[in-house]
Design the sequence.
C-alpha cells in the first residue's frame, strides 16, 4: 500500500517504471542501458539536453580527439569501426555513440531535467521529479517512481567558473572552455587561457594554429607526458607495466621516458608535482596532460606561459609576479564538476562534491537500489567496467523479483504503468 505524504504528487503526472531510471544519456548512461537491453530489463533514461552525449556534441572544441587509443574508449558490446583512426575525432566519437544507441534501440527522454530524486523510505521506492526543458509548449512536470536509480550524469556535468578579482570589470570577451569551438574568431587577438590541463593546453594550441597570441596561466604544478612513447600509447604502456611493477616504479619510469622525449619542461614554467602522474591520478583524480604539440609552441614562444592571476582590469590582467598583460579575450579552461548535489537528496553514498565516497572499484553501488556510473576518474574505460557490473546486478535483482512475484506496482489511478 502506498503512503505518499507529499501532496504535490497529485499536481504532476506520475509514472511507474518497471525497472531502473537512468539519469544521463552520455556514454556512461548509454552503456548501462545497453547492458539492460541485452538482459531484457526495462528502463527509462532521462536526458536534460536534446541529444545524447551533449557534453561531446555541444560543449567541446572542434579540434578535440580522444586522448587514448580507441580500444580503451569503446563501450561494452560494440567496438569502434575498423576504419576509424587510432585516436578518433570528436565527430567520429559522436557518430559512434549514435550508432551505439541505435544498435541497442536506446531511446532517451530528451529535454527532461531531473530537479530532484529521493528515496521514499516507507514505500522503499525512488521518486524522481523532472520538468521538461525544451520546446515551445509549457513545461510539464513528471514524477517517475522506481525501485532502482542509476546516476549517470558524470564528473563533468557543470562548468567550474572561479571568482577572480576584477574579472567582472574586464571589457573583453570571457568564455568558459565548454563554449570555445575554434580559434577562427581570435585571429590576431591576445587571448589569456586560464588553466593548463588538457583543455587549456589544446585551446592554446588551437589559438596558435589560428594565428592568435595566447598566454596560458600555469598557477600550479602539472605533469606533461608524451601521448606516445616509442610508438606505443603512453597509457597502454603504463597499464602493461603495472601488471608487473609497483605503481611508484612505473611512475619513475614514465617520468624518465617523458624527460627523454620532452626534455626539461620546468625551464618553460611548467613545474612538475612531487607526486608521480599515476599516483596523483589515483589519489586526487588529476589527469596528466598528454602533449600533442603544445610544448613545441611553448618552446618557440608562440604560446607564453604566465604565472597566477592577481586581478583583472578593463583591458589587462595583473599577474602574481607583478607583470601586466594587455589582453583582448579570456578563455577559462578551469574544469568541470558533478551536479549530483543539486538534485539527488542523498548523503550516505555521495559526498558533498558530488562524487561517490567509496573509491574505485567499489564506487558503483550504494544502498536501496542506488547506482553510480561515470564517476571513477578513469575515463571511458572505468565507466564501461562499472556499467557492466551495474547492468548485471540490476538484471539479477529484477529477475529475482519476477521469480518471487514480489514486484510491487502502484495502484493509484494517476500512476501509468507503461515502462
Sequence:
Amino acid at each position: 500500500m502506498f503512503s505518499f505524504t507529499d501532496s504535490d504528487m497529485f499536481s504532476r503526472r506520475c509514472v511507474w517504471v518497471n525497472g531502473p531510471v537512468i539519469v544521463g544519456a552520455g556514454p556512461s548512461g548509454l552503456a548501462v542501458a545497453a547492458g539492460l537491453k541485452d538482459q531484457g530489463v526495462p528502463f527509462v533514461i532521462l536526458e536534460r539536453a536534446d541529444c545524447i552525449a551533449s557534453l561531446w556534441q555541444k560543449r567541446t572544441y572542434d579540434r578535440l580527439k580522444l586522448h587514448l587509443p580507441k580500444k580503451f574508449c569503446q563501450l561494452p558490446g560494440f567496438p569502434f569501426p575498423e576504419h576509424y583512426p587510432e585516436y578518433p575525432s570528436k565527430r567520429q566519437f559522436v557518430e559512434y555513440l549514435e550508432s551505439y544507441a541505435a544498435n541497442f534501440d536506446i531511446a532517451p527522454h530528451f529535454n527532461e531535467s531531473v530537479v530532484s530524486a529521493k528515496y521514499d523510505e516507507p514505500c522503499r521506492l525512488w521518486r524522481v521529479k523532472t520538468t521538461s526543458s525544451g520546446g515551445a509548449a509549457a513545461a510539464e512536470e513528471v514524477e517517475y517512481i522506481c525501485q532502482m536509480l542509476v546516476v549517470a550524469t558524470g564528473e563533468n556535468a557543470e562548468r567550474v567558473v572561479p571568482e577572480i578579482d576584477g574579472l567582472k570589470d574586464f571589457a573583453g570577451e570571457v568564455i568558459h572552455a565548454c563554449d570555445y569551438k575554434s580559434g577562427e574568431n581570435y585571429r590576431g587577438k591576445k587571448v589569456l587561457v586560464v588553466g593548463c590541463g588538457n583543455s587549456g593546453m589544446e585551446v592554446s594550441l588551437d589559438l596558435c594554429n589560428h594565428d592568435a597570441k595566447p598566454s596560458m596561466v600555469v598557477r600550479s604544478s602539472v605533469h606533461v607526458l608524451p601521448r606516445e612513447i616509442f610508438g606505443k600509447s603512453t597509457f597502454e604502456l603504463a597499464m602493461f607495466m603495472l601488471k608487473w611493477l609497483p605503481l611508484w616504479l612505473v611512475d619513475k619510469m614514465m617520468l624518465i621516458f617523458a624527460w627523454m622525449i620532452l626534455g626539461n619542461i620546468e625551464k618553460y614554467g611548467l613545474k612538475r608535482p612531487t607526486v608521480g602522474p599515476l599516483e596523483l591520478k589515483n589519489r586526487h583524480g588529476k589527469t596528466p596532460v598528454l602533449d600533442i604539440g603544445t610544448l613545441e609552441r611553448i618552446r618557440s614562444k608562440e604560446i607564453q606561459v604566465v604565472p597566477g592571476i592577481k586581478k583583472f582590469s578593463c583591458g589587462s590582467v595583473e599577474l602574481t609576479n607583478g607583470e601586466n598583460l594587455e589582453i583582448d579575450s579570456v578563455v577559462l579552461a578551469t574544469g568541470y564538476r558533478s551536479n549530483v548535489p543539486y538534485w539527488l537528496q542523498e548523503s550516505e553514498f555521495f559526498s558533498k562534491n558530488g562524487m561517490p565516497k567509496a573509491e574505485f572499484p567499489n564506487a558503483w553501488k550504494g544502498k536501496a537500489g542506488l547506482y553510480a556510473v561515470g564517476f571513477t576518474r578513469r575515463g571511458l574505460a572505468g565507466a564501461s567496467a562499472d556499467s557492466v557490473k551495474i547492468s548485471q546486478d540490476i538484471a539479477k535483482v529484477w529477475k529475482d523479483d519476477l521469480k518471487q512475484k514480489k514486484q510491487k506496482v502502484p495502484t493509484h489511478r494517476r500512476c501509468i504503468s507503461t515502462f
